[in-house]
Amino acid sequence: MGSGYVGRRCEGRGAAGSPCGRGARWGQATLASMGGSESSHGGRRVTFGLDEREQVRVLQGIRLTEDVVNRMKESSQGKRDYQRSPRASNGTAPSSLAVAGRPRPTGIRPPMASDSAAEQELYRRYEQEQALVQEELIRLAKREREAASEAQERNSINEERQRTAQLAVELQGREAELRRQEAFYKEQLARIEKKNAEIYKLTSEQYQEAATKAEERIKRRNTDPVCANLQSEILKCYRENKREALKCSELAKEYQRCVNAAQKVTKASLLCYLALLSCFAWCFLLRNVFEICGIC
């Protein structure tokens, strides 16, 4: 544990031209804090003044005696000698355990019984100040750790927010693209449905027109029943000979021959009629196809 004079700052110049001569104003000095190692975090600012011989005599409102100043000088000189000490006599550097075990110079010795009450009071205040410095250092270290953890947490939260915002933007872009595609396909589907409806309507109208024209060109013919006289004779024979149906076999054969002959004639007429209808239908369908292709 050590404390020593680190630096000073004064303003103005003396009569002799020195940086801090007589008449210099009050400045600031930094005392190293107590601790195992000299840390820059432990320094604190104190005020000092110069007396007539340009020596520091006032520290935080307390005037130092000559004895205290001499002891502080001796402790500072001993500390510099200790830091500049060469290697051990055997040529090897002292071990870390030996260095750690040796007590460091404190810079200020405890007051002896022969010291004045002012020096004892000064040392008591010095110890109180060192205790306050240690407490303040502990609080500062704790605050720094808390601030670091809070900063890290804020950074993680900010990163998460940025990722969330980026994902939201990407999602909005995808939704907009899906809506655009949906509108496009709906428009295409509506156009196709409209075109199909027009084609169906046109085809139906043309089919009805073709059917009407075919009916007008091909007249219906009223025909008498085929082999009507033989049909009545067969019915009469079966009624008279219910238990002897073989007696009507000759009439049945003759009726079958008559029907076959009539079917041949009717079939030829029917084929001609169907061929004519098919021809008209194909003509109108082909014309419809040509018109559809012209629309497309």
Structure description:
- The chain is an alpha+beta fold and 296 residues long.
- The protein has three domains: 1-84 and 93-109, no CATH class; 112-192; 218-295.
- 62% of the residues lie in helices and 8% in strands.
- Strands 1-2-3-4-5 form a five-stranded antiparallel β-sheet, with no helix packed on it.
- Strand 4 (56-59) and strand 5 (62-63) form a beta hairpin.
- Helix 4 (228-240) crosses helix 5.
- The chain is rod-shaped, with a radius of gyration of 63 Å.
- 4% of the residues are buried.
- Residues 1-48 and 85-105 have low confidence and may be disordered.
Shape verdict: rod-shaped
Q: Spatial order of the strands in the main sheet? A: 1-2-3-4-5
**Distance from first to last alpha carbon:** 100 Å
Main β-sheet description? 5 strands, antiparallel
**DSSP, total strands:** 5
Query: Are there runs of 5+ residues with pLDDT below 50, and where?
Result: 1-48, 85-105
Function: Component of the MICOS complex, a large protein complex of the mitochondrial inner membrane that plays crucial roles in the maintenance of crista junctions, inner membrane architecture, and formation of contact sites to the outer membrane.
InterPro entries: MIC19/MIC25, MIC25
Protein name: Coiled-coil-helix-coiled-coil-helix domain containing 6
Biased composition (Basic and acidic residues): 70-84
